[in-house]
Amino acid sequence: MKPLMLTGASYLQKAGLDVCVLERRHLIGGAAVTEEIVPGYKFSRASYVLSLLRPQIVSDLDLKKYGLKVYLRDPNAYTPLIEPVRVKGQERYTEFEALLDRIVTSLDPMLDSAPVDVSSPWKHRSLREKYATLTKAKQLYNCARQLGRDSLAFYELMTAPAVKVLDKWFESEPLKATLATDAVIGAMMSPESPGSGYVLLHHVMGELEGVKGAWGYVEGGMGAVSNAIADCALDHGASVFTKKPVKEIITRNNEACGVVLDDGTEIKAKVVLSNATPKVTFLDLLTENVLPEEMRKDLELVSFESPVTKINADPNTGPDSVMPHHRCTIHLNCEDTADITQAYLAAKAGEYSSRPMIEMTVPSSLDPTLAPPGHHVVLLFTQYTPYTLAGGKAWDEDEKNKYADMVFGCIEQYAPGFQESVVGRDILTPPDLEQIFGLTGGYAPGFQESVVGRDILTPPDLERIFGLTGGNIFHGSMSLDQLYMSRPVPSMCNYRLPVRGLYLCGSGAHPESNPNIR
Protein backbone atom coordinates (compact mmCIF):
# COMPACT_ATOMS: atom_id res chain seq x y z
CA MET A 1 0.00 0.00 0.00
CA LYS A 2 1.32 3.39 -0.92
CA PRO A 3 0.17 6.99 -0.46
CA LEU A 4 -1.89 7.08 -3.66
CA MET A 5 -3.85 4.03 -2.56
CA LEU A 6 -4.36 5.60 0.85
CA THR A 7 -5.44 8.78 -0.94
CA GLY A 8 -8.07 6.88 -2.89
CA ALA A 9 -9.22 5.21 0.31
CA SER A 10 -9.62 8.59 2.02
CA TYR A 11 -11.64 10.10 -0.82
CA LEU A 12 -13.89 7.04 -1.14
CA GLN A 13 -14.48 6.77 2.60
CA LYS A 14 -15.33 10.48 2.78
CA ALA A 15 -17.83 9.88 -0.04
CA GLY A 16 -19.65 7.34 2.10
CA LEU A 17 -18.22 4.03 0.88
CA ASP A 18 -16.91 1.33 3.20
CA VAL A 19 -13.18 1.01 2.49
CA CYS A 20 -10.66 -1.63 3.52
CA VAL A 21 -6.94 -0.99 2.92
CA LEU A 22 -4.54 -3.94 2.79
CA GLU A 23 -0.77 -3.40 3.21
CA ARG A 24 1.72 -6.17 2.45
CA ARG A 25 4.43 -4.93 4.83
CA HIS A 26 4.39 -4.36 8.58
CA LEU A 27 3.91 -0.60 8.13
CA ILE A 28 1.82 1.41 5.72
CA GLY A 29 3.20 3.54 2.94
CA GLY A 30 4.94 1.25 0.44
CA ALA A 31 8.13 3.09 -0.53
CA ALA A 32 7.07 6.22 1.41
CA VAL A 33 7.98 4.95 4.86
CA THR A 34 10.09 5.94 7.84
CA GLU A 35 12.05 3.17 9.54
CA GLU A 36 14.43 3.11 12.48
CA ILE A 37 17.26 1.10 10.96
CA VAL A 38 19.21 2.08 14.06
CA PRO A 39 17.28 2.82 17.27
CA GLY A 40 16.88 6.55 17.68
CA TYR A 41 17.57 7.36 14.02
CA LYS A 42 14.69 7.70 11.57
CA PHE A 43 15.36 7.00 7.91
CA SER A 44 13.22 7.66 4.87
CA ARG A 45 14.27 4.24 3.72
CA ALA A 46 13.24 4.47 0.07
CA SER A 47 11.44 7.67 -0.97
CA TYR A 48 13.21 10.62 0.61
CA VAL A 49 11.96 14.00 -0.72
CA LEU A 50 8.48 15.38 -1.41
CA SER A 51 7.09 17.52 -4.21
CA LEU A 52 4.63 15.82 -6.55
CA LEU A 53 1.81 15.32 -4.04
CA ARG A 54 -0.97 17.41 -5.57
CA PRO A 55 -1.85 20.54 -3.52
CA GLN A 56 -5.55 19.76 -3.96
CA ILE A 57 -5.06 16.46 -2.12
CA VAL A 58 -3.35 18.20 0.80
CA SER A 59 -6.29 20.61 0.98
CA ASP A 60 -9.14 18.12 0.40
CA LEU A 61 -7.84 15.65 2.98
CA ASP A 62 -6.73 18.38 5.41
CA LEU A 63 -3.37 16.64 5.77
CA LYS A 64 -1.83 19.40 7.88
CA LYS A 65 -4.51 18.69 10.47
CA TYR A 66 -3.22 15.12 10.49
CA GLY A 67 0.35 16.16 11.14
CA LEU A 68 1.88 16.77 7.70
CA LYS A 69 4.69 19.31 8.07
CA VAL A 70 7.12 20.15 5.29
CA TYR A 71 10.51 21.87 5.38
CA LEU A 72 11.28 23.65 2.12
CA ARG A 73 14.88 23.36 0.98
CA ASP A 74 16.81 26.55 0.34
CA PRO A 75 19.08 26.38 -1.55
CA ASN A 76 17.85 23.58 -3.79
CA ALA A 77 21.11 22.06 -5.00
CA TYR A 78 24.84 22.13 -4.37
CA THR A 79 27.56 20.61 -6.57
CA PRO A 80 31.08 20.57 -5.08
CA LEU A 81 33.97 20.42 -7.57
CA ILE A 82 37.17 18.46 -7.07
CA GLU A 83 38.95 20.77 -9.49
CA PRO A 84 37.95 24.44 -9.19
CA VAL A 85 36.23 25.74 -12.29
CA ARG A 86 34.53 29.01 -13.08
CA VAL A 87 30.80 28.43 -13.41
CA LYS A 88 28.94 30.84 -15.68
CA GLY A 89 25.33 31.12 -16.72
CA GLN A 90 23.47 32.55 -13.73
CA GLU A 91 21.46 34.96 -15.88
CA ARG A 92 20.54 32.26 -18.38
CA TYR A 93 19.58 29.92 -15.54
CA THR A 94 16.96 32.39 -14.33
CA GLU A 95 15.50 32.52 -17.85
CA PHE A 96 15.60 28.71 -18.17
CA GLU A 97 13.83 28.28 -14.83
CA ALA A 98 11.15 30.76 -15.92
CA LEU A 99 10.61 28.79 -19.15
CA LEU A 100 10.10 25.52 -17.27
CA ASP A 101 7.71 27.26 -14.89
CA ARG A 102 5.59 28.59 -17.76
CA ILE A 103 5.44 25.16 -19.39
CA VAL A 104 4.42 23.24 -16.27
CA THR A 105 1.84 25.92 -15.42
CA SER A 106 0.30 25.41 -18.87
CA LEU A 107 0.24 21.63 -18.43
CA ASP A 108 -0.95 21.62 -14.81
CA PRO A 109 -4.66 20.93 -15.60
CA MET A 110 -3.66 17.67 -17.33
CA LEU A 111 -2.34 16.28 -14.04
CA ASP A 112 -5.78 16.33 -12.41
CA SER A 113 -7.76 14.60 -15.15
CA ALA A 114 -7.83 11.35 -17.07
CA PRO A 115 -6.27 11.18 -20.56
CA VAL A 116 -8.35 11.66 -23.70
CA ASP A 117 -9.96 8.31 -24.50
CA VAL A 118 -8.93 6.93 -27.88
CA SER A 119 -9.47 3.28 -27.04
CA SER A 120 -12.99 2.77 -28.38
CA PRO A 121 -14.81 3.80 -31.60
CA TRP A 122 -16.69 7.11 -31.35
CA LYS A 123 -19.96 5.64 -32.61
CA HIS A 124 -20.02 3.04 -29.84
CA ARG A 125 -19.73 5.56 -27.02
CA SER A 126 -22.62 6.77 -24.91
CA LEU A 127 -23.64 10.42 -24.96
CA ARG A 128 -22.01 10.85 -21.54
CA GLU A 129 -18.73 9.32 -22.77
CA LYS A 130 -18.71 11.55 -25.86
CA TYR A 131 -19.23 14.63 -23.72
CA ALA A 132 -16.37 13.61 -21.37
CA THR A 133 -14.04 13.04 -24.33
CA LEU A 134 -14.87 16.41 -25.87
CA THR A 135 -14.33 18.12 -22.51
CA LYS A 136 -10.87 16.60 -22.18
CA ALA A 137 -10.03 17.40 -25.79
CA LYS A 138 -10.95 21.03 -25.09
CA GLN A 139 -8.71 20.95 -22.04
CA LEU A 140 -5.81 19.74 -24.19
CA TYR A 141 -6.47 22.53 -26.65
CA ASN A 142 -6.47 25.10 -23.85
CA CYS A 143 -3.16 23.73 -22.55
CA ALA A 144 -1.65 23.99 -26.03
CA ARG A 145 -3.01 27.51 -26.46
CA GLN A 146 -1.56 28.60 -23.13
CA LEU A 147 1.85 27.24 -24.14
CA GLY A 148 1.84 29.73 -27.00
CA ARG A 149 5.39 30.79 -27.85
CA ASP A 150 6.77 28.07 -25.57
CA SER A 151 5.22 25.27 -27.68
CA LEU A 152 8.43 24.57 -29.60
CA ALA A 153 10.49 24.50 -26.40
CA PHE A 154 7.98 22.08 -24.89
CA TYR A 155 8.13 19.82 -27.96
CA GLU A 156 11.91 19.82 -27.78
CA LEU A 157 11.86 18.88 -24.10
CA MET A 158 9.50 16.00 -24.86
CA THR A 159 11.55 14.57 -27.72
CA ALA A 160 15.18 15.73 -27.60
CA PRO A 161 18.08 14.52 -25.45
CA ALA A 162 18.55 16.67 -22.37
CA VAL A 163 22.11 17.55 -23.43
CA LYS A 164 20.80 19.14 -26.62
CA VAL A 165 18.44 21.34 -24.62
CA LEU A 166 21.05 22.23 -22.01
CA ASP A 167 23.78 22.93 -24.59
CA LYS A 168 21.50 25.56 -26.14
CA TRP A 169 21.17 27.33 -22.81
CA PHE A 170 24.47 26.94 -21.00
CA GLU A 171 28.24 26.72 -21.48
CA SER A 172 29.29 25.63 -17.98
CA GLU A 173 29.69 21.84 -17.84
CA PRO A 174 29.16 21.55 -14.05
CA LEU A 175 25.90 23.52 -14.36
CA LYS A 176 24.70 21.38 -17.27
CA ALA A 177 25.63 18.16 -15.48
CA THR A 178 23.82 19.24 -12.30
CA LEU A 179 20.66 20.04 -14.27
CA ALA A 180 21.06 16.80 -16.23
CA THR A 181 20.68 14.75 -13.05
CA ASP A 182 16.98 15.69 -12.96
CA ALA A 183 16.69 14.51 -16.57
CA VAL A 184 17.78 10.98 -15.68
CA ILE A 185 17.06 10.51 -11.97
CA GLY A 186 15.38 7.15 -11.45
CA ALA A 187 15.39 6.47 -15.20
CA MET A 188 17.51 4.03 -17.17
CA MET A 189 18.54 6.64 -19.71
CA SER A 190 21.43 9.03 -20.17
CA PRO A 191 21.34 12.79 -20.77
CA GLU A 192 21.97 11.86 -24.41
CA SER A 193 18.84 9.71 -24.66
CA PRO A 194 15.97 11.20 -26.72
CA GLY A 195 13.11 12.14 -24.40
CA SER A 196 15.30 12.62 -21.32
CA GLY A 197 14.24 16.26 -21.39
CA TYR A 198 10.75 15.19 -20.28
CA VAL A 199 12.10 13.63 -17.08
CA LEU A 200 13.73 16.98 -16.31
CA LEU A 201 10.40 18.70 -16.90
CA HIS A 202 8.58 16.14 -14.77
CA HIS A 203 10.69 17.00 -11.74
CA VAL A 204 9.53 20.61 -11.69
CA MET A 205 5.82 19.77 -12.02
CA GLY A 206 5.27 19.66 -8.28
CA GLU A 207 4.41 22.29 -5.71
CA LEU A 208 4.98 22.66 -1.98
CA GLU A 209 3.62 25.35 0.31
CA GLY A 210 2.47 27.31 -2.75
CA VAL A 211 5.96 27.28 -4.31
CA LYS A 212 5.97 25.70 -7.78
CA GLY A 213 8.76 23.25 -8.51
CA ALA A 214 9.84 23.14 -4.85
CA TRP A 215 11.07 19.97 -3.14
CA GLY A 216 11.22 19.51 0.60
CA TYR A 217 11.70 17.22 3.57
CA VAL A 218 8.75 15.90 5.56
CA GLU A 219 9.04 16.15 9.33
CA GLY A 220 9.40 12.64 10.67
CA GLY A 221 10.47 11.29 7.28
CA MET A 222 8.41 10.23 4.28
CA GLY A 223 6.38 7.83 6.38
CA ALA A 224 4.70 10.89 7.87
CA VAL A 225 3.02 11.52 4.47
CA SER A 226 1.56 8.02 4.48
CA ASN A 227 0.56 8.27 8.13
CA ALA A 228 -1.25 11.58 7.63
CA ILE A 229 -3.28 10.20 4.72
CA ALA A 230 -3.98 6.97 6.60
CA ASP A 231 -5.13 8.91 9.68
CA CYS A 232 -7.55 10.85 7.47
CA ALA A 233 -8.97 7.61 6.08
CA LEU A 234 -9.23 6.08 9.56
CA ASP A 235 -10.84 9.23 10.94
CA HIS A 236 -13.64 8.88 8.39
CA GLY A 237 -14.19 5.20 9.16
CA ALA A 238 -11.88 3.25 6.85
CA SER A 239 -10.19 0.04 7.98
CA VAL A 240 -6.43 -0.25 7.46
CA PHE A 241 -4.57 -3.53 7.92
CA THR A 242 -0.82 -4.26 7.73
CA LYS A 243 0.95 -7.58 7.07
CA LYS A 244 -1.88 -8.61 4.72
CA PRO A 245 -0.25 -9.53 1.39
CA VAL A 246 -2.71 -10.12 -1.45
CA LYS A 247 -2.32 -13.35 -3.40
CA GLU A 248 -5.02 -12.91 -6.04
CA ILE A 249 -7.69 -10.53 -7.29
CA ILE A 250 -10.99 -12.42 -7.53
CA THR A 251 -12.95 -11.96 -10.75
CA ARG A 252 -16.26 -13.37 -11.94
CA ASN A 253 -17.75 -12.67 -15.36
CA ASN A 254 -15.02 -10.08 -16.08
CA GLU A 255 -15.77 -8.18 -12.88
CA ALA A 256 -13.55 -7.73 -9.81
CA CYS A 257 -15.35 -8.90 -6.69
CA GLY A 258 -12.64 -9.12 -4.03
CA VAL A 259 -9.19 -10.45 -3.14
CA VAL A 260 -7.60 -13.53 -1.61
CA LEU A 261 -4.80 -13.03 0.92
CA ASP A 262 -1.69 -15.20 1.18
CA ASP A 263 -3.21 -16.96 4.19
CA GLY A 264 -6.29 -17.92 2.18
CA THR A 265 -8.63 -15.29 3.65
CA GLU A 266 -11.15 -14.07 1.06
CA ILE A 267 -12.35 -10.47 1.23
CA LYS A 268 -15.33 -9.53 -0.91
CA ALA A 269 -15.56 -6.09 -2.49
CA LYS A 270 -17.55 -4.28 -5.17
CA VAL A 271 -14.48 -2.34 -6.33
CA VAL A 272 -10.76 -3.18 -6.14
CA LEU A 273 -8.07 -0.49 -6.33
CA SER A 274 -4.49 -1.62 -6.82
CA ASN A 275 -1.47 0.55 -6.08
CA ALA A 276 0.90 -2.21 -7.15
CA THR A 277 2.81 -1.88 -10.41
CA PRO A 278 1.02 -2.74 -13.68
CA LYS A 279 3.02 -5.95 -13.88
CA VAL A 280 2.06 -7.09 -10.38
CA THR A 281 -1.57 -5.99 -10.72
CA PHE A 282 -2.40 -7.44 -14.13
CA LEU A 283 0.11 -10.24 -14.66
CA ASP A 284 0.67 -11.58 -11.14
CA LEU A 285 -2.60 -10.99 -9.25
CA LEU A 286 -5.03 -11.79 -12.08
CA THR A 287 -5.39 -15.32 -13.40
CA GLU A 288 -3.93 -15.75 -16.87
CA ASN A 289 -7.20 -16.04 -18.81
CA VAL A 290 -8.81 -12.83 -17.49
CA LEU A 291 -7.13 -10.29 -19.78
CA PRO A 292 -7.21 -10.47 -23.59
CA GLU A 293 -4.03 -12.04 -24.96
CA GLU A 294 -3.07 -8.92 -26.89
CA MET A 295 -3.32 -6.81 -23.73
CA ARG A 296 -1.18 -9.30 -21.80
CA LYS A 297 1.50 -9.11 -24.49
CA ASP A 298 1.46 -5.31 -24.32
CA LEU A 299 1.90 -5.45 -20.54
CA GLU A 300 4.76 -7.94 -20.82
CA LEU A 301 6.61 -5.42 -22.99
CA VAL A 302 6.30 -2.53 -20.51
CA SER A 303 9.78 -1.42 -19.45
CA PHE A 304 10.56 -1.41 -15.74
CA GLU A 305 14.31 -0.89 -16.04
CA SER A 306 15.83 0.90 -13.08
CA PRO A 307 19.33 2.31 -12.54
CA VAL A 308 19.06 3.18 -8.86
CA THR A 309 20.59 1.99 -5.63
CA LYS A 310 19.66 3.58 -2.29
CA ILE A 311 22.03 3.38 0.66
CA ASN A 312 21.07 4.37 4.19
CA ALA A 313 23.98 4.69 6.62
CA ASP A 314 23.85 4.87 10.37
CA PRO A 315 25.59 7.59 12.39
CA ASN A 316 27.77 8.13 15.35
CA THR A 317 28.19 11.53 16.95
CA GLY A 318 29.41 14.35 14.77
CA PRO A 319 29.91 18.09 14.98
CA ASP A 320 26.63 20.00 15.08
CA SER A 321 27.49 22.56 12.41
CA VAL A 322 24.78 22.75 9.77
CA MET A 323 25.63 24.92 6.78
CA PRO A 324 23.22 26.07 4.02
CA HIS A 325 24.49 23.50 1.53
CA HIS A 326 23.70 20.68 3.96
CA ARG A 327 19.98 21.46 3.55
CA CYS A 328 19.81 20.83 -0.18
CA THR A 329 20.62 17.98 -2.57
CA ILE A 330 24.39 17.58 -2.85
CA HIS A 331 25.39 16.34 -6.31
CA LEU A 332 28.63 14.33 -6.47
CA ASN A 333 30.43 13.15 -9.62
CA CYS A 334 28.35 15.68 -11.50
CA GLU A 335 31.02 17.96 -12.93
CA ASP A 336 30.51 16.70 -16.49
CA THR A 337 27.55 15.19 -18.38
CA ALA A 338 30.02 12.78 -20.01
CA ASP A 339 30.56 11.11 -16.61
CA ILE A 340 26.80 10.57 -16.27
CA THR A 341 26.60 9.08 -19.76
CA GLN A 342 29.57 6.80 -19.04
CA ALA A 343 27.90 5.53 -15.87
CA TYR A 344 24.76 4.79 -17.91
CA LEU A 345 26.70 2.87 -20.59
CA ALA A 346 28.42 0.79 -17.90
CA ALA A 347 25.06 -0.21 -16.42
CA LYS A 348 23.70 -1.20 -19.83
CA ALA A 349 26.70 -3.53 -20.10
CA GLY A 350 25.93 -5.07 -16.70
CA GLU A 351 28.61 -3.14 -14.81
CA TYR A 352 28.71 -0.07 -12.61
CA SER A 353 30.90 2.97 -13.10
CA SER A 354 33.71 3.90 -10.73
CA ARG A 355 32.15 7.39 -10.74
CA PRO A 356 28.41 6.88 -10.21
CA MET A 357 26.00 9.79 -10.10
CA ILE A 358 25.35 10.47 -6.39
CA GLU A 359 22.63 12.59 -4.81
CA MET A 360 23.26 13.12 -1.11
CA THR A 361 20.70 14.64 1.25
CA VAL A 362 20.89 15.43 4.97
CA PRO A 363 17.21 15.81 6.00
CA SER A 364 18.12 16.13 9.68
CA SER A 365 19.74 19.46 8.81
CA LEU A 366 16.17 20.85 8.80
CA ASP A 367 14.16 18.19 10.67
CA PRO A 368 15.30 17.76 14.30
CA THR A 369 13.01 14.74 14.87
CA LEU A 370 15.14 12.32 12.83
CA ALA A 371 18.22 12.00 15.05
CA PRO A 372 19.49 12.92 18.53
CA PRO A 373 20.95 16.42 18.99
CA GLY A 374 24.31 16.77 17.27
CA HIS A 375 23.66 13.74 15.07
CA HIS A 376 22.45 13.55 11.46
CA VAL A 377 20.84 11.20 8.98
CA VAL A 378 22.32 11.14 5.47
CA LEU A 379 20.63 9.55 2.44
CA LEU A 380 22.41 8.62 -0.79
CA PHE A 381 20.60 8.04 -4.10
CA THR A 382 22.97 6.63 -6.72
CA GLN A 383 22.98 5.70 -10.41
CA TYR A 384 23.64 3.64 -12.42
CA THR A 385 23.35 0.05 -11.22
CA PRO A 386 21.94 -2.77 -13.37
CA TYR A 387 19.27 -5.14 -12.08
CA THR A 388 21.48 -8.10 -13.05
CA LEU A 389 25.25 -7.87 -13.30
CA ALA A 390 27.21 -9.00 -16.35
CA GLY A 391 27.22 -12.76 -16.91
CA GLY A 392 23.95 -13.15 -15.02
CA LYS A 393 25.63 -12.52 -11.67
CA ALA A 394 23.29 -11.59 -8.83
CA TRP A 395 23.86 -8.86 -6.29
CA ASP A 396 25.20 -10.79 -3.30
CA GLU A 397 26.40 -9.09 -0.13
CA ASP A 398 30.01 -9.05 -1.27
CA GLU A 399 29.08 -7.27 -4.50
CA LYS A 400 26.87 -4.78 -2.70
CA ASN A 401 29.60 -4.02 -0.21
CA LYS A 402 32.04 -3.57 -3.06
CA TYR A 403 29.72 -1.08 -4.71
CA ALA A 404 29.03 0.75 -1.44
CA ASP A 405 32.75 0.98 -0.69
CA MET A 406 33.31 2.44 -4.15
CA VAL A 407 30.55 5.02 -3.57
CA PHE A 408 31.99 5.87 -0.16
CA GLY A 409 35.37 6.24 -1.85
CA CYS A 410 33.89 8.78 -4.25
CA ILE A 411 32.50 10.75 -1.32
CA GLU A 412 35.94 10.58 0.29
CA GLN A 413 37.33 12.58 -2.60
CA TYR A 414 34.98 15.44 -1.74
CA ALA A 415 34.95 14.95 2.05
CA PRO A 416 38.30 13.57 3.29
CA GLY A 417 37.91 11.33 6.33
CA PHE A 418 34.54 9.96 5.28
CA GLN A 419 35.50 6.27 5.04
CA GLU A 420 37.08 6.13 8.50
CA SER A 421 33.63 6.66 10.01
CA VAL A 422 32.16 3.42 8.66
CA VAL A 423 32.34 0.73 11.33
CA GLY A 424 29.40 -1.49 10.33
CA ARG A 425 26.67 -1.97 7.78
CA ASP A 426 23.45 -3.85 7.05
CA ILE A 427 23.02 -4.68 3.35
CA LEU A 428 19.92 -5.73 1.43
CA THR A 429 19.93 -6.46 -2.31
CA PRO A 430 20.61 -4.41 -5.51
CA PRO A 431 17.35 -4.78 -7.48
CA ASP A 432 15.61 -2.85 -4.79
CA LEU A 433 17.99 -0.04 -5.65
CA GLU A 434 16.23 3.13 -6.34
CA GLN A 435 17.63 5.48 -3.93
CA ILE A 436 21.14 4.95 -2.84
CA PHE A 437 22.73 6.20 0.34
CA GLY A 438 21.13 6.95 3.66
CA LEU A 439 24.09 8.13 5.69
CA THR A 440 24.12 9.79 9.05
CA GLY A 441 26.50 12.63 9.73
CA GLY A 442 27.54 15.99 8.36
CA TYR A 443 28.84 16.54 4.83
CA ALA A 444 32.29 17.78 5.76
CA PRO A 445 35.80 16.45 6.46
CA GLY A 446 35.57 13.83 9.18
CA PHE A 447 32.12 12.68 8.05
CA GLN A 448 33.13 9.04 7.90
CA GLU A 449 33.90 9.08 11.60
CA SER A 450 30.18 9.59 12.20
CA VAL A 451 28.91 6.56 10.25
CA VAL A 452 28.35 3.31 12.13
CA GLY A 453 26.25 1.32 9.65
CA ARG A 454 24.49 1.31 6.29
CA ASP A 455 21.47 -0.17 4.53
CA ILE A 456 21.98 -0.85 0.81
CA LEU A 457 19.00 -1.24 -1.53
CA THR A 458 19.72 -2.35 -5.07
CA PRO A 459 17.04 -2.65 -7.80
CA PRO A 460 16.28 -6.29 -6.85
CA ASP A 461 15.99 -5.22 -3.20
CA LEU A 462 13.59 -2.42 -4.07
CA GLU A 463 11.53 -4.96 -5.98
CA ARG A 464 11.52 -7.53 -3.19
CA ILE A 465 10.90 -5.21 -0.25
CA PHE A 466 8.67 -2.51 -1.73
CA GLY A 467 7.09 -4.36 -4.67
CA LEU A 468 8.67 -2.03 -7.24
CA THR A 469 8.95 -4.14 -10.39
CA GLY A 470 12.52 -3.96 -11.66
CA GLY A 471 13.25 -1.53 -8.83
CA ASN A 472 11.62 1.24 -10.89
CA ILE A 473 10.44 4.11 -8.67
CA PHE A 474 7.95 5.33 -11.29
CA HIS A 475 6.15 1.93 -11.63
CA GLY A 476 7.34 1.92 -15.25
CA SER A 477 9.75 3.85 -17.44
CA MET A 478 9.05 7.51 -18.20
CA SER A 479 9.63 7.15 -21.94
CA LEU A 480 7.18 8.80 -24.35
CA ASP A 481 5.65 5.46 -25.33
CA GLN A 482 4.61 4.93 -21.69
CA LEU A 483 3.11 8.33 -20.83
CA TYR A 484 -0.36 9.91 -20.78
CA MET A 485 -2.83 7.82 -22.84
CA SER A 486 -0.22 5.07 -23.22
CA ARG A 487 0.35 4.58 -19.49
CA PRO A 488 0.73 1.74 -18.77
CA VAL A 489 -0.34 0.58 -22.27
CA PRO A 490 -2.56 2.20 -24.96
CA SER A 491 -5.27 -0.46 -24.64
CA MET A 492 -5.85 0.69 -21.03
CA CYS A 493 -6.27 4.36 -21.95
CA ASN A 494 -8.55 6.34 -19.63
CA TYR A 495 -8.45 3.50 -17.07
CA ARG A 496 -10.71 1.43 -19.32
CA LEU A 497 -10.08 -2.21 -18.35
CA PRO A 498 -11.77 -5.42 -19.48
CA VAL A 499 -12.28 -6.21 -15.78
CA ARG A 500 -15.07 -4.03 -14.41
CA GLY A 501 -14.52 -2.64 -10.92
CA LEU A 502 -10.72 -2.96 -11.09
CA TYR A 503 -8.63 0.23 -11.06
CA LEU A 504 -4.90 0.96 -11.18
CA CYS A 505 -4.24 3.93 -8.89
CA GLY A 506 -0.44 4.06 -8.58
CA SER A 507 2.33 5.70 -10.57
CA GLY A 508 1.89 3.14 -13.33
CA ALA A 509 -1.24 5.04 -14.41
CA HIS A 510 -1.57 8.67 -15.52
CA PRO A 511 -0.80 10.99 -13.88
CA GLU A 512 2.46 9.37 -12.84
CA SER A 513 2.95 12.05 -10.17
CA ASN A 514 3.55 10.32 -6.87
CA PRO A 515 4.59 11.59 -3.44
CA ASN A 516 7.20 8.84 -3.23
CA ILE A 517 8.74 9.65 -6.59
CA ARG A 518 12.18 10.09 -5.05
Automatic annotation (TrEMBL):
Its main location: mitochondrion. InterPro entries: Amino_oxidase, FAD/NAD-bd_sf. It comes from the Eukaryota. It is found in: Mitochondrion matrix. Residues 6-307 form the Amine oxidase domain. Belongs to the carotenoid/retinoid oxidoreductase family. Interacts with COX5B; this interaction may contribute to localize PYROXD2 to the inner face of the inner mitochondrial membrane. Probable oxidoreductase that may play a role as regulator of mitochondrial function. This is Pyridine nucleotide-disulfide oxidoreductase domain-containing protein 2.
